[in-house]
Amino acid sequence: MKAFVTGANGFTGSHLVKHLQQQGYQVKGLVRQSSNLSRLANCDLELVYGDLTHRQVLQDAIADIDTIFHTAAYVDLGLVDEAEMERVNVEGTRTILEVAQSARISKIVYCSTIGVFGDTQGQVVDETFQRTQQDFSSAYDRTKYQAQQLVDGFFQQGLPVVSIMPSGIFGRDDPHFGPVIQLFLKRQLKVWPGGDRVTGIVHVDDLVQGMILAAQNGKPGEHYILSSGELTTREMFAILSEETGIPLPADPPELLVRLVGRLIDPIGKLLSWNPPISRERVRYIYDRCVRVQATKAHQELGWQSRSVSEILKELVR
């Protein structure tokens, strides 16, 4: 079997490449000329240099491919380049779908996000949930929702595409929450807001195994949530604290965090800087709650995952 992975050098993409190779796939990976390829060290794959919107590059790359895994995305919150995010997440997805359709690819697996459900207001939902939030919490929220709409539309046109919807992705080289855990382990994380925020998590290796199962067993047009479970931020740090003996970071007053978010946004815009606290990030901490269950993936894909506590303890080790 021959597989093509977009965003092959990224966090999810690089783990996927390794798992595919372990299972006997021949792999091509799409990367940019400027990409850091350190995550792909010692991987035996064919690199394809280009951009998600480079149609001819994609057409040539997938000419002999059986399965496409689309993991590439612009992921960030706060003060972001919204035009670039739309180009990558929406137009890039449109291009890969169009090229796959023309090439009559046998299966395409799209890495979506549980964020497309919007704010579920604390309700635990499954794949049948219809988004009720009318607006969008961020440019990332909007562009991933638009991309999912494209994916579903192409399925209606006959493209055999399956959507994987992960919750928060954790792993040893996680570029998002990983640095926070590193600061905690160095005893340098003294404050962290939003202790009551509920977060669903999945280990990156469990995620990519689920994507491979989706390629093998997933039904075209279906959505599969991949989440190992959920816990509050306070519970997360409590597990880390129990494993290490390091005290939990303090949870600052919500009003203070909201005030800082409002005050620091103009500074970030002035300096072209995306601050660690902004109005958008504050909204995610206190006002938005997406809760999901992964029963369908367990039943239909045979997906298994390590527990939330196992994931966190592994990160500490």
UniProtKB/TrEMBL annotation:
A matching Pfam family: Epimerase
Domain NAD-dependent epimerase/dehydratase: 4-225
Cellular component annotations (GO), alphabetically ordered: cytoplasm
Domain of life: Bacteria
GO MF term (any one): aldehyde dehydrogenase (NAD+) activity
PANTHER family: NAD(P)-BINDING DOMAIN-CONTAINING PROTEIN-RELATED, PROTEIN YEEZ
Record's protein name: NAD-dependent epimerase/dehydratase family protein
Lineage: Bacteria, Bacillati, Cyanobacteriota, Cyanophyceae, Spirulinales
